[in-house]
Amino acid sequence: RKMMRVTCGMLLMVMSGVSQAAELHLESRGGSGTQLRDGAKVATGRIICREAHTGFHVWMNERQVDGRAERYVVQSKDGRHELRVRTGGDGWSPVKGEGGKGVSRPGQEEQVFFD
After folding, report:
1. Does the CA dihedral 113-90-99-38 come out positive or negative?
2. Which H or E element spans position 7?
3. CATH number of the domain located at residue range(s) 2-114 in this protein
């Protein structure tokens, strides 16, 4: 559960610097146990942007897994625990190209959701 809070905090930090006009809302998922099953959603996010835009981009400032733009490894402070995280959702695509980070979603909607 502590790891879920750390993950959500990192997403919030990254997204808050993207646009002064964008709002980010994160909701932690899962139970109170210490074990997570493979594929479990640890958080769901919603981005709101009322200004004109052409899309959204979500990423984490963490080590990527095998160079894949949408997959990260998050470690506990003491380094003894790690959580492999994948960002995405309906309509989201991994950022292509060398050094690509995260997922993007083109569009002009005022709000979008991601996992």
Report:
1. positive
2. helix 2-16
3. 2.60.40.1570
Dist CA 17 CA 11 (whole Å): 11
Average pLDDT over residues 68-73: 86
pTM of the full structure: 0.71
Query: Among 97, 31, 18, 92, which Cα is nearest to 60's?
Result: 18
d(CA 42, CA 6): 11
- Kindly report which listed range (15-29, 67-81, 90-104) carries the lowest average pLDDT score: 15-29
Statement: residue 18 has pLDDT above 60 = no
Return all residues near 25 (Cβ < 8 A) that are at least 6 apart.
Answer: 45, 46, 47, 48
Q: What are phi and psi of 4, to 5 degrees?
A: -65, -40
How far, in Å, CA of 91 to CA of 104, rounded? 8
Q: What is the pLDDT of residues 46-59, one digit of tens each?
A: 999 888 888 888 88
Domain boundary assignment for the chain: 2-114
